[in-house]
Amino acid sequence: MHRRRLLQGAVVTAAAALVPASARAVAPVAGAPDYPAALWAPAHAANRSVPAHPSERRIDRVVIHVAQQLFTPTIGIFRNPAQQVSAHYVVRSGDGHVAQCVREKDIAWHAGDWDVNTRSIGIEHEGWVDRPEFFTDVMYRRSALLTADICARHGIPTDRAHIIGHHEVPGSDHTDPGVLWDWDRYLRLVNLP
């Protein structure tokens, strides 16, 4: 029996080695994400905060980001405890795949402003602010579905006062999501029935 377990373990290990590194980087971990269509890809605990009184945490906005990076490296940054940054979600450009990196009940370090971090959900998008080819139709659609779901669950109005860009956070020195982000299109998608 012991030999059989060793062989089974070797097969599992060999099979895991065949999975591309990019897929292993976002492999699911125990626990379901808050957004059912997302894959759980947790940020390191050093890159997020657990609120002292979770029942008192009120979410009143969604902050839209562009990562200035590809999807898998963005998740890798959130997993690196030295980076001191995270977001709740990351959306991939090519297929709109969503990864959740921080539980919505926890505080992601995404906005650069503690007050905004404590009352918002941050969504990163794969790509660069000056490369519109990353702002694909499928990315806009999947991100809008995610934002609509977050807003519905938290009672957030689906307007520009409550769905903001990182550049609109008080004191921010960021430009994302940038001038090429189509806010009209995005809000139209968020508000589809």
For this entry, give a set of tags.
single chain, 193 residues, alpha/beta, six-stranded mixed beta sheet, two-stranded antiparallel sheet, 8 strands, 13% strand, globular
Task: Work out the strand percent.
Answer: 5-15%
First-residue to last-residue Cα separation: 57 Å
Low-confidence stretches: 1-29
**Distinct helical segment count:** 6
Let me know the average pLDDT: 87
Overall 3D shape: globular
- Total beta-strand segments: 8
Q: Kindly state the percentage of residues in helix.
A: 25-40%
Query: What order do the helices and strands follow?
Result: HHEEEHEEEHEHEH
Kindly describe this structure.
The structure is a single chain. The chain is of the alpha/beta class. It has helices spanning 2-18, 21-24, 71-79, 114-118, 137-154, 183-190; strands at residues 39-40, 48-49, 61-64, 89-91, 98-100, 107-108, 120-125, 163-165. The strands form 2 sheets. A 6-stranded mixed sheet has the order 1-5-4-7-3-8, with helices on both faces. A hairpin with a 6-residue loop joins β4 and β5 (98-100). The chain is globular, with a radius of gyration of 18 Å. The model is unreliable at 1-29 (pLDDT under 50).
Question: What's the gist of this structure?
Answer:
The chain is an alpha/beta fold and 193 residues long. The chain has helices at residues 2-18, 21-24, 71-79, 114-118, 137-154, 183-190; strands spanning 39-40, 48-49, 61-64, 89-91, 98-100, 107-108, 120-125, 163-165. The model is unreliable at 1-29 (pLDDT under 50).
